[in-house]
Amino acid sequence: MSFLQARGVVRAYGRTPALRGVTLDVAEGEILAVTGPSGCGKSTLLHCLAGILRPDAGQVTWCGERIDEWSEAARSRLRRTEFGVLFQFGQLVAELTAAENVALPLLLAGTGRREARTAALTWLERLGVAEVADVPPGEMSGGQQQRCALARALVTEPRVLFADEPTGALDTLTGEQVLTQLVRLAREQRTTVVLVTHEPRIAAYADREVTLRDGVLDRSGLGLDAPLPGGHR
């Protein structure tokens, strides 16, 4: 059963349309790849699904709730608890160490400092970057930064992880290592993943792929009605 849905989502930037009525269902526990050429609306769709942007028209529903109608504060709380977001360039806070960056979502949610740091260190260890726990982002490699960003996105154990071109700034080998870890951890926790990418080799990690072209879902590919692994829809 779909627990994250877009219905007729429209979004424009000024007079430039980005999404032209996208309807999409995402099933719980699914890893979904959203693909398509640059400028087709992939990131805009992800941002609408994650509550970062409000659609100009249409609906975004999560667990039966119209999150597109929620206030910015309510949508921000959702992204600190039930949703995790991983961006292409990590967007770590430069002034904080790796452990402080990873602990930040927990601290914002009211977790005590000691407990938050312990959880951060655990996640850095799980992602193989415990050695940079007290290092600022500027002293890390690109792969280390993105692993730290993934740890930060997962530290709250979100039900949905939104990943926007998460390997776009990495070399091929490092990118595949990060994706392998992302998929492994998502499967372990049954985290739903919405993964935006323009690379077929990255999309191949997903259970299902949908393609956007000029802001419209390509119905000729694996779209809304494609069966999920195990026979689910």
UniProtKB/TrEMBL annotation:
GO molecular function, one term: transmembrane transporter activity
CDD domains assigned to the protein according to its UniProt record, in alphabetical order: ABC_MJ0796_LolCDE_FtsE
The entry's keywords: ATP-binding, Nucleotide-binding, Transport
UniProt-listed Pfam families: ABC_tran (PF00005)
Protein origin, superkingdom: Bacteria
Membrane spanning residue stretches: none
The UniProt record lists the keyword RNA-binding: no
Occurrences of domain ABC transporter (ranges): 4-233
SUPFAM superfamilies: P-loop containing nucleoside triphosphate hydrolases
Signal peptide: none
Gene Ontology cellular component list: plasma membrane
Keyword set includes Iron: no
SMART domains xref list: AAA
Protein name: Putative ABC transport system ATP-binding protein
